Amino acid sequence: MIVLFGLVGLLVGGLLNWAGDNLPRRASGGAILSLEPISWPGLALWRMLTASISRGSLMRSQKSLWLGSAVEVFATLLFAYLWERFGLSWRLLLLALNCSFFLLIAIIDLKYRLVLNMLIYPAVVLMLLFHSMPPGRDTIAALLGGAVGLSPFFLVSLTKPGSIGGGDVKLAALIGLTVGFPRVLWALTVGILAGGIIALLLALTRRWGLKSYMPYAPFLCLGAIIALLYDPLPLIFSLW
């Protein structure tokens, strides 16, 4: 079953690649065109394999195919892990949906430097409804998490205009609503550290300068996915 669910993850990865190419185009009324659209149900891994026969074809589509293939591999491993850890359960379904959503946000920002309101706003509403549903839903923790996620990024956007996009601010708030407090602290810490490490590596290799723009949503999404799967804060608090 773990192999079967991993294959489900592979198909989901292909669907996310397709959505990552088409949703920005829909949101912009067709103004944004994909350089290398990945058509469903074609998988980037399969397209890379077939394109490798022709070196020229592979070179022309290399960036898009590498990103699409990485998404599919990540989704395959993620779904296999979720099945191994949680088995057939509602928690498995919820985590698969949440992680897939944040992976989609990361794909779009990597390709188009966009965090789409058409994804963020409905997700905020759904999270508010979800955390208000009994039994055992902690609305206060979700709202506090949203406030903690929103505040630092909103303040940075006010004090240093242009340093962070409005989409990143809304994404941070959504992550807080999704994981709640205090888990949002772990999610933001992972995202900020990951972004800082990559920025440092790019600067050291002279591929990124102080005035260069680096998409930040993928790192926030990475922090959200890790926080959904693993929360070390209870262990840390118990040691205190």
A few lines on this structure:
It contains 11 helices and no strands. The chain has helices at 2-27, 44-51, 55-60, 62-86, 90-112, 117-132, 139-159, 166-179, 183-204, 217-229, 233-239.
pLDDT average, as an integer?
82
Question: How many runs of DSSP E, i.e. beta strands?
Answer: 0
Biggest sheet details: none
- Ends distance: 40 Å
Residue stretches low in confidence (pLDDT < 50, at least 5 long) are 56-60
Instruction: Name the structural class.
Output: mainly alpha
The number of helices is 11
* CA gyration radius, whole angstroms: 19 Å
- Share in β-strands: under 5%
Quaternary state reads single chain
Q: Report the principal-axis shape.
A: globular
Order of helices and strands: HHHHHHHHHHH
What features would you describe in this structure?
The protein has 240 residues and is mainly α. The chain has eleven helices and no strands. Helix 5 (90-112) runs antiparallel to helix 10 (217-229), helix 7 runs parallel beside helix 9 and helix 9 (183-204) crosses helix 10. It is globular, with a radius of gyration of 19 Å. The model is unreliable at 56-60 (pLDDT under 50).
